[in-house]
Design a protein that fits this description.
The chain is of the alpha/beta class. It folds into two domains: about 1-45; about 70-210, Glutaredoxin, CATH 3.40.30. Helices cover about 35% and strands about 10% of the residues. The chain contains five helices and six strands, in the order ααββαβαβββα. It has helices at about 1-40, 70-75, 130-135, 150-160, 200-210; strands spanning about 80, 120, 140-145, 170-175, 185, 190-195. Helix 2 (about 70-75) packs antiparallel against helix 5. Residues about 10-45 have low confidence and may be disordered.
């Protein structure tokens, strides 16, 4: 726990430094933008791993919840719920691969000392498995969808996160490890995977969230 707190403090300092640098950079970018906008030569920017909030899907209507029973919800949606054995929780500073874990997506195991922040990540964001697994150790629910998922479905998943205090202790991102599911949710030691997307999947994700959020072995916020 002492090592975890020290690493959390170190990560927080790095984020503060990044934000401070970002503030200075924003001033320079704003000045450049004025010049570019005047000349009509605005260019595009690259994607990064910073999440956005979960409040941007207010106009998306989701199916009403039909059951609060996870097993019943999973059966109705033709999803699979599993509770894989814990693979460990040591830290290692390396790039983790899908082959480092016994489930895809992973639910526990050795992971990177840093972790991703809560929120919604753009397509291709949050790609590092080691940082994903670390979020689960802190009690997060990670919802992920297969590459190529329609934008309309992604918008629905964003609305799902917004249901709970703007996405409290949840992450949403595109899976980059070729998982065998259309959509999946993971918690520390728990996985629900749905091979096809349908309206009943939302009940599965809601009941999974209620069962496992904030249940990780570490209480670091």
């Amino acid at each position: 726990m002492a090592r975890e707190r020290a690493e959390a403090s170190s990560a927080a300092r790095r984020r503060r430094l990044r934000y401070a640098f970002g503030g200075a950079l924003a001033v320079a970018v704003a000045s450049a933008t004025v010049v570019l906008a005047t000349s009509g030569a605005m260019g595009g920017g690259g994607e990064d791993d910073e999440p956005k909030g979960a409040g941007g899907a207010a106009n998306v209507q989701l199916p009403e919840q039909q059951t609060g029973d996870l097993a019943a919800a999973a059966k109705a949606a033709q999803c699979t719920v599993s509770n894989p054995p814990i693979e460990g929780q040591a830290h290692a500073t390396k790039i983790f691969k899908a082959s480092d874990y016994k489930t895809n997506p992973p639910t526990s195991g050795e992971h990177h000392p840093e972790w991703y922040e809560d929120g919604i990540y753009e397509s291709g964001g949050a790609p590092e498995l080691g940082k994903q697994v670390h979020t689960l150790e802190h009690g997060r629910i990670d919802v992920q969808y297969r590459a190529g998922t329609p934008n309309s479905t992604v918008a629905q998943l964003e609305a799902l996160l917004a249901e709970q205090s703007g996405g409290y202790h949840m992450l949403l991102y595109e899976n980059v490890s070729d998982m065998p599911y259309a959509v999946a949710a993971t918690a520390w030691g728990h996985l629900v995977g749905c091979k096809t997307m349908n309206d009943k999947v939302f009940d599965v994700l809601r009941t999974f969230r209620a069962a496992y959020i904030d249940k990780g072995p570490e209480s670091v916020p």
